[in-house]
Amino acid sequence: MDDAALAAHIRQQTIEIFVLYVRGVPAGFFELDVAAPRETKLCYFGLIPDFIGRRLGPYLLQAAIDQAWSRSIDRFWLHTSTFDHPKALSVYQRAGFLVYARRRISFDDPRRRGILPRAPIKPA
């Protein structure tokens, strides 16, 4: 997503972004989409790598849950995948989320399509 598309996305009135700071340093964030009536979607959730393993994930997730349910909604939901942190699903389940559906999807390797370089780029 280029800068203009990102700016347009986060300016939508139905998108809410919250940032967790630790001693003034951004440590993580979550994004909620409140566009659908009576439901909220957790679109993005994550910690900056330096803050993983400090038990901040459950704290941040609870903040997202509290924010979502502060409205009159019937459903709060999210999508997760194998690209997320290996502990993501178990963290969501401990927070009360239930698996609604599982599906296998695949896509073409972006290196083969020329979107990403075939070999890692080494810093100069």
Your description of this structure?
It is a single chain. The protein is of the alpha+beta class and 124 residues long. The model has no long low-confidence stretch (mean pLDDT 90). 10% of the residues are buried. Helix content is 23%, strand content 24%. A hairpin with a 5-residue loop joins strand 2 and strand 3. The longest helix is centred in the middle third of the chain and has 14 residues. The protein has a domain of 83 residues: 3-Layer(aba) Sandwich (Aminopeptidase), CATH 3.40.630.30. The chain has a four-stranded mixed beta sheet with strand order 1-2-3-4, covered by helices on one side. The radius of gyration is 17 Å and the shape is globular. It contains three helices and four strands.
Just name the CATH architecture of the domain at 12-94: 3-Layer(aba) Sandwich
Strand segment count: 4
Briefly note the CATH topology name of the domain at 12-94.
Aminopeptidase
In round numbers, the mean pLDDT is 90
**SSE succession:** HEEEHEH
**First and last CA, distance:** 25 Å
Count of discrete alpha- or pi-helical segments spanning 4 or more residues: 3
Largest sheet descriptor: 4 strands, mixed
Portion in helices:
10-25%
Extract low-pLDDT stretches: none
CATH C-level category of the domain at 12-94: Alpha Beta
- What is the CATH H-level superfamily of the domain at 12-94? Gcn5-related N-acetyltransferase (GNAT)
Strand content: 15-25%
Shape: globular
Decide which structural class fits the backbone: alpha+beta
Strand order, largest beta sheet: 1-2-3-4
